[in-house]
Amino acid sequence: MKGLLIVVGKTTDKRFEAITQEYMERINHYIPFSVEVVQELKNTKGLSQNEQKEREGELILRSLQSGDYVVLLDEHGSERSSTDFAAWMQKKMSAGPKRLVFIVGGPYGFSQSVHQRGNEEVSLSRMTLSHQMVRMFFVEQIYRAMTILNGEPYHHE
User: Fold this and answer.
1) DSSP strand E in 10-68: where?
2) Is the pTM for the entire model greater than 0.70?
């Protein structure tokens, strides 16, 4: 199984990018995992929030394959502890999807078509986090899950 994180727009803060990249390298010791950046829309002043979500949604959907298990990172999704998330990851890896795809939407969330394509939604927090921080926090949680599953001492209960 391969893991993929799809995000809208580039990270502009090099510190967040460096930390995210470090965790990506760590994750790749366990499973192939990558980040795909969907280009941020330009000239959006004339677009409504829904129009912007629809256009971003079209770009996101182009990145998906038919056998993907798609998880939307959304503040309204289910919350899990790190150990519960690790158990969930193990279950998904055992189920055998070709790719486990996590998606961080644009500033206004996901279009209806992306919601329909998603298999489930997961929340990192009820609090609103910047999209740049979400990337960093989420890849750290993927790494934490891998260390939990491998009985390594990174996570403490």
Assistant:
1) 33-38
2) yes
